[in-house]
Amino acid sequence: MGNANVSNVTIRPEEAEHFASLARDWWNPKGKMASLHQVNPVRLEFIRSAIDAHWDADRQTVKPLAGKSALDIGCGAGLLCEPLARLGGDVTGVDAAAENVSVASTHAEAMGLDIRYMAGEVASLDIGTFDLVTCVEVIEHVADKRQFLTDVAARLAPDGLLVMSTPNRTAASRLLLVGAAEAIGYVPKGTHHWSDFVTPEELEGMLAEVGLEVTERSGIAYRPGKGLHLASDESLNYILSAKRPA
């Protein structure tokens, strides 16, 4: 947990240890983290659209984050940090598990990408603020969600953009994301605890409490033949962008 003091610890130690145990397999698209490789392009589609809308960027440019800083909280082994760097961002990745940070750093170096990785709780690290903050599939692993969002908001520059994604707490997600997905090995056992899932309305409310308003929201749905895709159906998973009100 780095040098975080007790009041700053929001990620449960057992959650960090669970993902640390998977660190070496994180970049294997057919391994235990295969589901992340499948959802990553869908997240990136939303993130790119949010970047273009927020900064009124040229949708044709290949580096819309050029000259901008980006922070990925709960970065794992860097699956999102690397494409953000390729979009031109000056990227920092933070994760509670040192094993993930080690794997992420090694992989980024092999890819020729200059990404700063740091282990620890985001609240305990003196890293300043960022133009873009991403936090995908993290809040469902957090004990004190309101404190965590306070810490996330503190890392966002005044005119910055936040993107978050997380599973919804519905009957469908309980059946499919926890029961069936773990039973068939689509996600490692122990990855999801349904009672910790947050509904879109709950997350929007907590973001409002820390001074952020949601600007866009989309479901991440699955359909045979199409796979994972952005959709109006939020019953399994959703992704949103937020900013400080003007």
List keywords for this structure.
single chain, 246 residues, alpha/beta, Rossmann fold, eight-stranded mixed beta sheet, 7 helices, 8 strands
- The CATH topology turns out to be Rossmann fold
User: From the coordinates shown, what is the CATH architecture?
Assistant: 3-Layer(aba) Sandwich
Taking all Cα atoms into account, the compactness measure Rg is: 17 Å
Uncertain stretches of 5 or more adjacent residues: 1-8
Structural class: alpha/beta
User: What general outline do the C-alpha atoms trace?
Assistant: globular
Strand order of the largest sheet: 3-2-1-4-5-8-6-7
Percent range for helical residues?
25-40%
Terminus-to-terminus distance: 35 Å
- The CATH class turns out to be Alpha Beta
Number of domains: 1
- Give the full name of the CATH homologous superfamily: Vaccinia Virus protein VP39
Blueprint (SSEs and pairs):
Elements: H1 13-20, H2 34-54, E1 69-73, H3 81-86, E2 90-95, H4 98-110, E3 116-119, E4 130-136, H5 145-154, E5 156-167, H6 171-183, H7 200-209, E6 213-223, E7 227-231, E8 237-243
Parallel strand pairs: 1-2, 1-4, 2-3, 4-5
Antiparallel strand pairs: 5-8, 6-7, 6-8
